[in-house]
Amino acid sequence: MNPAALDKFLWRTTKSAPINPQTKIIETSKSRVRVRDTEGEKPAVVFFCDPPVMVEHYDDLIKIFSDTFRVVVLELTGCGFSKPKSAKAFEFSEVVLAAEDAIHKLKLGSVVLCGPCICGFVAAELARRGNLNIAGLILIQTPDAANMLAWFERTKKLLRIPYIGQIVVRATSKHLINFWFRYATGKQTNYSDMSTRSLEVISKGGIYSLATILQRWGKGLEDDAVEVPALIFWGKQDRSHAPTDRASSLKHVPNAELIEFEHCGHFPELEDPQEFAKIAKPFMDKCLYT
């Protein structure tokens, strides 16, 4: 049994995803992908969840954006109820394919993709692949590959050790999630509410495959430039990215505008959705309506 297979085994469950009229499971050849989808004929904005963030964290953003756009929130493989069908499905390239397949099946047409942290690499890779009609990218806390790998190295060493990391995350997920939201968010953020939402999903059968992501995704990360309209957001109070060169994000999208939120941490779109929307909405309008 390889480490990814162990992770799949450790997070096995017979529980079903929480019921919500806007939430569904999309079957792809790689994974079962959970999305929240406001549906309708409007141009679409797709937000990827940065684990341990789940679709439940996006309620406020959905309310703000759904008057103008079809809003889709997607849990990548290994997060929440997006569960792999095989151990191989944990690989970065397979996660990209599952997300691409899910978005195809939603029949969204032209989209703006919003990728936070490592999920920004998924969004950028989808734009490079060219199989989706991507009108724009929004990257949030997403550095270049070198800075992302350095971020990996700053995480607990135990989590980066095959097998041991998977067991530690499964056994201490409550502690890790509480610590992460407390450590990475801004001073004014109600991190306990964010943590509670994640833990509720996990208690109902959701998964948090942090160790496998740390161990397996690194080889798939690239930062080749993508020629697409883009915004870059950084929350300056994110202690986990304190040493990160924020300008390195421009390696993904050289012509992007870089916006910094002084009062936010790792999740500026969730910590201050109103302020995020003031900047992101006009950009999305330009990408999708002109």
In short:
With 290 residues, the protein is α/β, with parallel strands linked by helices. The chain is 39% helix and 19% strand.
Provide tags for this entry.
Rossmann fold; nine-stranded mixed sheet; 39% helix; AB_hydrolase_1; 290 residues; two-stranded antiparallel ribbon; AB_hydrolase_fold; 10 helices; Epox_hydrolase-like; 11 strands; alpha/beta
Report on the architecture of this protein.
The protein is an alpha/beta fold and 290 residues long. It has one domain (3-289): Alpha/Beta hydrolase fold, catalytic domain (Rossmann fold), CATH 3.40.50. It is built from ten helices and eleven strands. It is globular, with a radius of gyration of 17 Å. The relative contact order is 0.17.
